[in-house]
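Task 17 of the worksheet. Students: predict the tertiary structure of the chain below and write it out as structure tokens. Keep your answer in the requested format; marks are given for formatting as well as content.
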Amino acid sequence: MTHEVVAVLLGLVAGTLSALFGVGGGIVFVPTLIFLGHTTHVAVATSLAAMVPVIVVGSWRQTRYGTVNWRDAIVIGVASVPTAKVGEVVATSLPNDVLRRLFAAVLVFVAV
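Model answer:
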């Protein structure tokens, strides 16, 4: 199976899970991209970029249904900006193996 076919399948699965459960695509994207041979740093960054279209479409559709609380979304979004920068600085300072293990721990925590 080619890299592009796996990427398309990954996008379909992540988009479906995001729409159904509000699950971040990173739960699907990051492990798959690591499996495809990317470093954890590249997988995390690619996952963030790939989620932009999913977020835009999902937000637009849910707004049409009247289910988005924009006040809460804006507060949470604005509050997350500084800590996202902190997370980026920490992630880039960690070795690939450490970042991969931390991500695995987060997945186990989410599963529990």
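Marker's comment: DSSP finds five helices and no strands in the chain. The first helix runs from residue 3 to 21.
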